[in-house]
Amino acid sequence: VMYCSEECRTASWDESHCIECSILPTLQKLETSILASKIVIKACKTNDLKNMLKCLEAEEIKKGCNNEGVYSSSNYSLNFWLVTHIEKITFGNLFESSLNAACILHCLETMTDFFSDIDVNEYKYEVGSLLLHHILQIRLNTYGIKEIVNLKDYFEKSSPTSNQEAVTGYGIYAVSSLLNHSCDPNSDTLGLRGDVIVIRANRPIVAGEQ
């Protein structure tokens, strides 16, 4: 793993990489597993798991809004309540996702200290359920993180075709997931500014319009 700065590396280590580092080779072989495990690790490191699960159950009617009714992107439950459309997933895809979740759970239990502060016997299956939940979400709610890659080393000389947009990763931006698909969209995703996704209207949008 490479980072753009010491600050970025430290933030990543504190959030999740201190746990995921030892299992990254396995996660890289499983589709969507890196992001799903990162979400669960970060959520469990910043929240008491028992209280978090109780709060999620109690918040079902609010679907991610905080006590002031604000849909805040800093709230983990906002990500939790993004749709999975599990009722529309084929048995084969659901089985594959379940195997991936079980594999991540096994790695967390046997290859990391993830459960050092969590009762593995009491919460093992809850953590596995969260992993599966987020794996299913990722299929529907991720945005590709792109950058311009210079390919001039592959050409004899620099040309317009030597620069290419490449996906370097994926992220979940919960507020952006509220925007429905349209064949005639009134907004466009422009990319990232730091860790914030930038979406701008491409024409006037009146109140009440999707």
TrEMBL record:
Pfam families: SET. Residues 122-210 form the SET domain. Keywords: Methyltransferase, S-adenosyl-L-methionine, Transferase. PANTHER family: SET AND MYND DOMAIN-CONTAINING PROTEIN 4. GO terms for cellular component: cytoplasm; nucleus. It comes from the Eukaryota. SUPFAM superfamilies: HIT/MYND zinc finger-like, SET domain. The keyword Transferase applies. The keyword Transferase applies. GO terms for molecular function: histone deacetylase binding; N-methyltransferase activity; protein methyltransferase activity; S-adenosylmethionine-dependent methyltransferase activity. This is SET domain-containing protein. InterPro entries: SET-MYND_domain_protein (IPR052097), SET_dom (IPR001214), SET_dom_sf (IPR046341). Signal peptide: none annotated. GO terms for biological process: methylation.
